[in-house]
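Q: Given only this backbone (393 positions), what sequence would you predict?
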């Protein structure tokens, strides 16, 4: 398919500068033509590859999970994650291509890859593989920021049920194991960060609380300690215990759009110690899980309300509230966010399907589609950026 978009002489060219110059000039001119993008994601633990068509069709994907090797340590072990990426990435790429029934050389037009943020060794494995594939096969290369208004937020434009792309601007809530962010997504590469976490991310707080409550990890895609806590919370009473909602006591911090989740885990720990609660009792663990989840959800809503107020004061007419990241697959949180968006602000809540909320290759491939159309093509010499500020994306 690549030969339909670009002259054969440029495909065979040994001068990458010539190819890049041609692509920058002509990317905007092929928006009505169909092309395929392969995306590689190795920012943390799972090894994922996805293939997406510019017509919003998911063609194939594959993923290798690492939950079992990290659970004994209670969290991600970077060296183990890196070795597993190195071991399984080639076979995951092959599996994704086989699932899509596509040939890498003939059918893939663009290669996209997570460039950051993430674990340095893990990012390096994926980036090296993607750069090699792109360079050898003379494909355009797209480096992707897998957070914020890049992969997680843009995936909503792929999965949105309407036949048209979800229009800008929309409010983006990214809630994951690594980040908690509120942004206004104005367009590709254009956004305003309104708030972040000043300590733990919401996903990290879920994970730490699950370990505190000795909840076994949930297996499979979208699993882990935080997902397991959600299952326990479904069986518990969120009003059995009371914990303080973060940032409500101090008047200044109450008006900030930043989050703080570290104190919630401490509050649960204090409850256990104060009442000498028996964590061998499943009912106790159910109720504590529900209490934590309820307080975390209220904290999310508090700051989102401030974000909606900010947008209203700036005259920004939002088209939707987009929630993504691993914690966005939490059904209770989704339901609360949906009520906030629909009933209080008269806009839809747009969430990718739960299996696309966690890190995956599909979202990287789709961001490759969006950035390629905008002419945002990278050189084969790009490096990974483990700590990649959204402001510098």
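A: Predicted residues:
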């Amino acid at each position: 398919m690549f030969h339909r978009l670009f002259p054969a002489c440029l495909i065979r060219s040994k001068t990458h500068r010539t190819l890049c110059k041609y692509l920058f000039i002509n990317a905007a001119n092929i928006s009505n033509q169909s092309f395929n993008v392969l995306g590689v994601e190795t920012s943390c633990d799972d090894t994922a590859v996805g293939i997406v068509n510019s017509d919003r069709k998911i063609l194939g994907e594959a993923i290798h999970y690492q939950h079992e090797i990290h659970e004994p340590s209670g969290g991600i072990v970077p060296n183990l994650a890196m070795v597993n990426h190195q071991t399984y990435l080639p076979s995951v790429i092959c599996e994704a291509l086989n699932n899509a029934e596509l040939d890498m050389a003939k059918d893939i037009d663009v290669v996209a890859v997570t460039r950051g943020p993430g674990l340095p060794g893990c990012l390096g494995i994926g980036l090296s593989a993607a750069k090699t594939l792109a360079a050898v096969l003379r494909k355009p290369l797209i480096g992707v920021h897998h957070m914020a208004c890049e992969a997680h937020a843009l995936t909503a434009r792929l999965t949105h049920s309407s036949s048209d792309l979800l229009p800008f601007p929309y409010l983006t809530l990214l809630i994951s194991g690594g980040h908690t962010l509120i942004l206004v997504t104005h367009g590709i590469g254009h956004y305003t960060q309104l708030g972040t976490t000043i300590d733990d991310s919401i996903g990290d707080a879920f994970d730490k609380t699950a370990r505190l409550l000795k909840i076994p990890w949930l297996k499979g895609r979208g699993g882990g300690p935080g997902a397991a806590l959600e299952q326990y919370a479904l069986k518990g009473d969120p009003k059995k215990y009371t914990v303080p909602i973060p940032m409500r006591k101090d008047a200044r911090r109450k008006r900030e759009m930043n989050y703080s989740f570290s104190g919630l885990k401490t509050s649960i720990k204090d409850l256990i110690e104060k009442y000498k609660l028996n964590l061998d009792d499943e009912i106790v663990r159910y109720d504590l899980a529900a209490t934590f989840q309820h307080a975390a959800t209220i904290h999310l809503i508090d700051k989102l309300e401030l974000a909606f107020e900010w947008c209203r004061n700036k005259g920004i007419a939002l088209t939707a509230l987009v929630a993504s990241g691993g914690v966005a697959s939490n059904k209770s949180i989704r339901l609360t966010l949906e009520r906030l968006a629909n009933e209080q602000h008269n806009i839809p809540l747009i969430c990718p399907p739960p299996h696309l909320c966690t890190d995956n290759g599909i979202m990287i491939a789709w961001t490759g589609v969006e950035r390629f159309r905008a002419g945002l093509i990278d050189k084969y010499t790009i490096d990974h950026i483990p700590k990649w500020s959204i402001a510098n994306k």
